[in-house]
Amino acid sequence: MAEITSPTLSTGTASAPATGTARVKRGMAEMLKGGVIMDVVTPEQAKIAEDAGAVAVMALERVPADIRAQGGVSRMSDPDMIDGIINTVSIPVMAKARIGHFVEARVLQALGVDYVDESEVLTPADYANHIDKWAFTVPFVCGATNLGEALRRITEGAAMIRSKGEAGTGDVSNATTHMRRIRAEIKRLTSLPEDELYVAAKELQAPYELVREVAQAGKLPVVLFTAGGIATPADAAMMMQLGAEGVFVGSGIFKSGNPAQRAAAIVKATTFHDDPDVIAKVSRGLGEAMVGINVDDIPQPHRLAERGW
Amino acid sequence: MSARSEGAPASGPRIGVFALQGDVREHLRALESCGASATAVRRPSELDSVEALVVPGGESTTMSKLSIEFGLIEPIRKRIAGGMPVYGSCAGMIMLAERVLDGRPDQESFGGIDMTVRRNAFGRQVDSFEGPVTLSPFDDPFHAVFIRAPWVESVGEGVEVIGRAAGRIVAVRQGSLLATAFHPELTGDPRVHRHFVEMVRAALNVTEG
């Protein structure tokens, strides 16, 4: 919902400037394209991420690998920690809220974060409803495993989509599956005759108008990033080649042996994702990658990608 | 120094879009729609093949860092000094500023426009806005999208201010260099890109005598 603010443009025209519009929210994500957004839990980590060339940082209470290891309910980060991160870096600061937890999202908006991630990595607060994201000035990014899920999130007001992958594993296979699936489902829509889009919308459980828009444009109406299990420069580059417009890295950086160097390497590999020479060069001497867990070894109820619907 | 090669398409000037990070695709599309032949530039060799450059919206600290590490910053500075036309939107405006406020201590810009730009001056994302702006080259107001936008704090004598919003300078021109704090590539209004393509054509005609 557009919210009209007071500062007047010196144009003398009647229409006032508007904040929180779909264009302003989606446009913010466009500016992050080709970049890497890094999970951080402290201002110190945020500084390392900014030094490495991150386009934004994502504040959360614990990185997904620790959430897995320690268990328990995981929630929005402490406001003091978020303030500390905002005051430490000059790049955009995103923060995670629990699925359906509209009050956590309100708090994050009040703190001045630049994007809210309604994230399956945290413990869901509502197992039926996601947040009505149109009701906010701050934009939202949401995870998706397939096109229908992405379109439902966009219908609720998400201004950016990321693959879910399987966070906190260092196993990129689920992110690969999600990116390939979303890409294939978009491609299929573009090949359908117009009169079959009604049934396609029904099957995708998404509004017909949005399905038609995707069929005509051959892409989502918002930016599509990848996330979940990215641990190496080559992982990031592969995701870009599979159609991601940018990369979220969670545990992969700060659970590795040399976070600063790995972070910088992933940034470079994302920019030169199609240049194996650059990827080879930046991949040298990075030290230990995060140890990782195979997704197959995680019992079904503990898989984060299956949260959200 | 940017003499047009024999093989250049007759369709229009060859304009590169700085593509280490940012909304590159939107600028490529806008330039193509204005009759330019647009191409992404990530390497010095790709810079050599274009006659003009657009620096897109994005994260200026990331652009600064990557352009140093991948050896683009000095070649771009040299081309700007040699008269190459450049247009920068938002982060691109910051990259064209001689002086940047509220940047990182190690942040470098290409420079070229004698101005001081304040980064994220309009505020954080919740303050990002869209609205009409009067730009002196155009008759009708331009619907402008400002995203964590900078503004121009002050300009030197040779800089022409061509647009203001909320009392702040948001569009400037100096010689063949053009910069806006907003993102015309997001709205589908081709006038700013068309204006830049005309600036490029004029500059190339002068170069070629």
Automatic annotation (TrEMBL), chain A:
Catalytic residue list: K96 (schiff-base intermediate with d-ribose 5-phosphate)
EC number: 4.3.3.6
Pathway(s) it belongs to: Cofactor biosynthesis; pyridoxal 5'-phosphate biosynthesis
Reactions the enzyme catalyzes: aldehydo-D-ribose 5-phosphate + D-glyceraldehyde 3-phosphate + L-glutamine = pyridoxal 5'-phosphate + L-glutamate + phosphate + 3 H2O + H(+)
Keyword field contains Glycoprotein: no
Occurrences of domain PdxS/SNZ N-terminal (ranges): 22-227
Binding-site positions, D-glyceraldehyde 3-phosphate: R180
Recorded GO MF terms: pyridoxal 5'-phosphate synthase (glutamine hydrolysing) activity
Enzyme class: lyase
UniProt binding sites for D-ribose 5-phosphate: D39, G168, G229, G250, S251
Keywords of the record: Lyase, Pyridoxal phosphate, Schiff base
UniProt subunit comment: Homohexamer and homododecamer. In the presence of PdxT, forms a dodecamer of heterodimers.
This protein's name: Pyridoxal 5'-phosphate synthase subunit PdxS
Organism, scientific name: Phytohabitans suffuscus
Gene it is expressed from: pdxS
